[in-house]
Amino acid sequence: MKSNLTRRAVIAGLAMAGVPTVTRRALAELPQRSRTICYIGGYTQHGPPGGAGNGQGISVFEMNPDNGSLSALMTYVDIASPSFFVISADSRFLYALSEIDDFNDNHEGCVTSFSVNRKSGELTKINVMRSGGAVPAHLSIHHSGKYVMVANYMGGSVGILPIKPDGSLGDPTDVVKNTGPRMPDRASDNPPGNFAISDHSGSHVHMVASDPSGRFVLACDAGLDRVYVWTLDLHTGRLVPNAKMPFITMTPGSAPRHFAFNEKGNMIYILGEQDSKVVAAAFNAQTGEIVPQQTVSTVTPHFRGSTLAAGILLSPNGRYLYVSNRLGDSLASFHVNDDGTLNLVDEIWMHADYGRSMMFDPSGSFLFCANQRSDSVTSFRVNAATGELQFTWNFTPVGSPTTFAFMNTI
């Protein structure tokens, strides 16, 4: 009896089963040379209420080192809304969160671990583990390499997931939930005409990462307007509030979203989502204390209207800092002075809508921006000496992109 299945139907069926849309054989037949692989994730149809998007899963590209263009290789569809992910220091594993609230009956999100083929960039799923809270928005690998730390935005919590020798994830060893007073929806130092608001109905942890020394773990809570500081017991996997400074309260309503450390670890740059400002602060790597030194706007004095800051990124040489602004659709570049303070150098159009995460390619020659609402990734050539960004006119179509990870093959 002749089968009624078409080739298209077979491919669709494989995709629904989580098989990559490029076959293993086809990937293996790609030229075996050192290449730059770019992984891009974002919101899929399966996401939290109001968070569904046009993405398919984790898309894999090869970057052209001459012009920064991206060529599609394959897409992994067996994952829901991978809105943030990170690659291990040795490039053997990739950990991707799913920004959902229905992984289990406790309305948690989850984290998927993948092994990475260092020659081809191919991903192989290892396991999936609960994140410790609803709608995770950020994750990072602890400096020790022993734990994945997850910021659960709607859950208002930080989950600590142990990494096993095979790269798989264990059940959370700790889940810390933050509490605090109700904060205003808008900051008093908003740019003129800003009608955008950040959710201050409760705790909303937006980022968690260790400082460069690995001695402390910090988290931005955009709902409580705090930056928390803990130490992590590497034996038990439990967070301990820092004795000197368990948290610092930022400008009420500013919604601290993300932060970036300089290479020395003595300066931290904290980005306020709601007021689109960066707080440059001294960080004591011995005590974990944060002392604000300066607050600078990420939009020029000419700007009027709504804006929500999204991503913050230091250049590889540490001389320039970049911020993406949604709604205003701009990229701000700052010069980093010798004392760690900032000077706004330029604010340019990102050539797309609702830019979120930014990332440099491994060489630092190009800066990429994930533009969620325009379903595209744009890239800019970076002048390392001046910090200037020059648009490449490369648009890569990706549904609802929000995050990147790069890797050089071997």
From TrEMBL:
Organism of this sequence: Gluconacetobacter entanii
Protein name in the entry: Lactonase family protein
Family: Belongs to the cycloisomerase 2 family.
InterPro entries attached to this UniProt entry: Cycloisomerase_2, Haem_d1_sf, Lactonase_7-beta_prop, WD40/YVTN_repeat-like_dom_sf
Keyword check for Glycosyltransferase: no
Upper taxonomic lineage: Bacteria, Pseudomonadati, Pseudomonadota, Alphaproteobacteria, Acetobacterales
Superkingdom of origin: Bacteria
Sorted UniProt keywords: Carbohydrate metabolism, Glucose metabolism
